[in-house]
Design goal:
Order of helices and strands: HEHEEHEEHEHH
Number of helices: 6
Structural class: alpha+beta
Distance between the termini: 47 Å
Radius of gyration: 20 Å
Number of strands: 6
Strand content: 15-25%
Helix content: 40-55%
Shape: globular
């Protein structure tokens, strides 16, 4: 995320991001917010919600992982966890780069949530999410092995 956008979040929510100047031995916030600018409004809304329901919340790390927003906190209440979960689910519907509607897809081992326009700009040979998801690969392997175990030829599977 651009430094200017990060600074807006830090200025508006100083309690949530109060550890950002601490060393890496204490927090990962020293590296800033590690995601695209498109999630700025999502993170802003999340911080507003956290301020209301759990003002003691302190961010430990904010980043993109496997196409979704990860907002790790030091202290978490049930209400805060609910807000964090909702933001994470919503991040899979918002382009990380521009903020428009998007969806997770992957290429070359990386999964990102991008809109069609940003995906075209990326031009790295995107594949649908289900083709890169390790879980579905394992499920397919399980059923193939099951049929082979039951006496079927691998050619018949």
């Amino acid at each position: 995320m651009k430094k200017e956008l990060q600074q807006k979040l830090f200025d508006r929510f100083p309690n949530i991001f109060r550890d950002r100047n601490k060393p890496p031995q204490e927090t990962a916030m020293c590296w800033g917010i590690a995601c695209g600018d498109g999630w700025f409004h999502l993170i802003w809304s999340l911080c507003e919600d956290l301020e209301k329901v759990a003002p003691e919340t302190v961010a430990f790390q904010v980043k993109q992982k496997l196409g979704g927003l990860r907002f790790y906190v030091k202290k978490s209440s049930h209400e805060a966890r609910r807000c964090l979960d909702i933001a994470e689910v919503n991040s899979f519907k918002i382009c990380e780069w521009c903020g428009r509607a998007g969806g997770p897809e992957g290429s070359k081992g990386w999964i990102r949530t991008l809109c069609l326009e940003c995906r075209k700009k990326e031009q790295v040979g995107w594949r649908p999410w289900h083709e890169t998801n390790f879980f579905w690969f394992r499920v397919g392997k399980f059923f193939r092995d099951l049929f082979v175990w039951r006496g079927q030829n691998e050619d018949q599977v």
